[in-house]
Amino acid sequence: MDLLDPELIQLNMDAGSHEEIIKKLAGILMEKGYVKESYLESVLEREKRFPTGISMGEVNVAIPHTDAKHVIKTGMAIAILNNPVKFNIMDDPKNEVETKLVFMLAIKDPELQLKLLGHLASMFRNKDLLISLKEAKYKNDVIKIFESINLV
Amino acid sequence: MPVRLLIVCGSGIVTSTILEQRIREIAESEDLNITIRKIGISALNNWIGEADLVITTSRYIEDVPNVRIISGAPVISGIGEEKFVAEFVKVVKELQGR
C-alpha cells in the first residue's frame, strides 16, 4: 500500500489561498494517476459547502477531499506551507483557521482505508508530532514521522 | 432495543469513518447496545426517521424533532474529547432506558 508516496509530499510550498494549495495538490495527484480530472473541481466545490479546516489551537490542519467517484486509487498528498493559508472550519464554517499543514485525501473505499483514517485521527491528537511535521524540511523527515506512527 | 446512531459528515467518507471507529471503541468499552449507519449529509433526510441519535462533524444540520444531535468534532481534533465521550455515553444510556 503506497499510502505515503514520497512524490506526494510537498515541502516549502507557497500558496496565497486554500484554493491555490488545493489546485497544486490536486494537480500532483492527477499527474501521478491517483485521481480523475474531475477531482479538482469537486474538491473545490465541496470545500465551499463542507469546509475541512480543523481547529486544534496550536497547530491547525485541513483535510480537503471528495467523493470516491473522482478517485482512481487511494493516496494522500501532504503540503507543508511556508506561510499559512486560511480554511473555513468544518464544524464552524463561518470562521476560519490558518494552517500550514494540508492533507489532501484521495479515498477510494473508506472501509479499506480504516487504518489510514485511524492513524490520521491519532496524528491530529498528537501535537508534538504535528509540530515536527510543520517544521519538516526534508521528505525523509516526513517519512520518519509517519513511520513513527506505523503509517508506512 | 439498540440505540440507532446516524453518523454524518460532508460526504460520508472521511470524518464519519474516523467517528465510527472511535464510537465503536467507546461502545465496546462502555457496553452500549447501538447500531451505526454512516452517511453523507445529502442522505440525511432519507435516514433521519430511523435514527435515535445523530453525531455529526458538520454544522449543517437543523434541529430535528425527537432526534438528539451531538457534535463529533472533538473526536477529530482531540480537543474536548473527554467531554464528548461523557455526553455520548450519557445520552445513549438515557435512550437505552426509554
Query: Would you report the number of β strands of chain B?
Result: 4
User: Low-confidence segments of chain B, ≥5 residues, pLDDT <50?
Assistant: none
- What class do helices, strands and sheet pairing of chain A give? alpha/beta
The proportion of strand residues of chain A reads 25-35%
Total tally of structural domains of chain B: 1
Reading the helices and strands of chain A in chain order gives EHHEEEEHHH
CATH architecture of chain A: 3-Layer(aba) Sandwich
State the end-to-end distance of chain A.
8 Å
Tell me the series of helices and strands of chain B, N- to C-terminal.
EHEHEEHH
What is the CATH C-level name of chain A?
A: Alpha Beta
Global Rg of chain A? 14 Å
Profile the largest sheet of chain B: 4 strands, parallel
Q: Oligomeric status of the shown chains?
A: heterodimer
- Spatial order of the strands forming the largest sheet of chain A: 1-4-5-3-2
| Largest interface, chains and sizes | A-B, 29 and 23 residues
Q: How many DSSP H or I helices of chain B?
A: 4
Helix/sheet category of chain B: alpha/beta
Number of domains of chain A: 1
What are the key terms here?
heterodimer; A: 152 residues; alpha/beta; Mannitol-specific EII, Chain A; 5-stranded mixed beta sheet; 37% helix; globular; B: 98 residues; Rossmann fold; 4-stranded parallel beta sheet; 4 helices; 4 strands
Folded structure, characterized:
The complex is a heterodimer of chains A (152) and B (98). Chain A is of the alpha/beta class and 152 residues long. Chain A has one domain (6-148): Mannitol-specific EII, Chain A. Chain A has five helices and five strands. Chain A has helices spanning 18-31, 38-49, 114-125, 127-134, 139-148; strands at 9-13, 53-54, 61-62, 75-89, 92-106. Chain A has a five-stranded mixed β-sheet. In chain A, strand 2 and strand 3 (61-62) form a beta hairpin. Chain B has 98 residues and is an alpha/beta fold. Chain B has one domain (3-96): Rossmann fold (3-Layer(aba) Sandwich). In chain B, 42% of the residues lie in helices and 22% in strands. Chain B has four helices and four strands. Chain B has a four-stranded parallel β-sheet, with helices on one face. The longest helix of chain B is centred in the N-terminal third of the chain and has 16 residues, at 15-30. Chain B is globular, with a radius of gyration of 12 Å. Chain A binds chain B through residues 46, 49-50, 52, 54-57, 63, 65-68, 90-93, 105, 107, 110-111, 113-114, 117-118, 120-121, 124-125, and chain B through 9-11, 13-15, 17-18, 21-22, 41, 57-60, 71, 73, 75-79, 81.
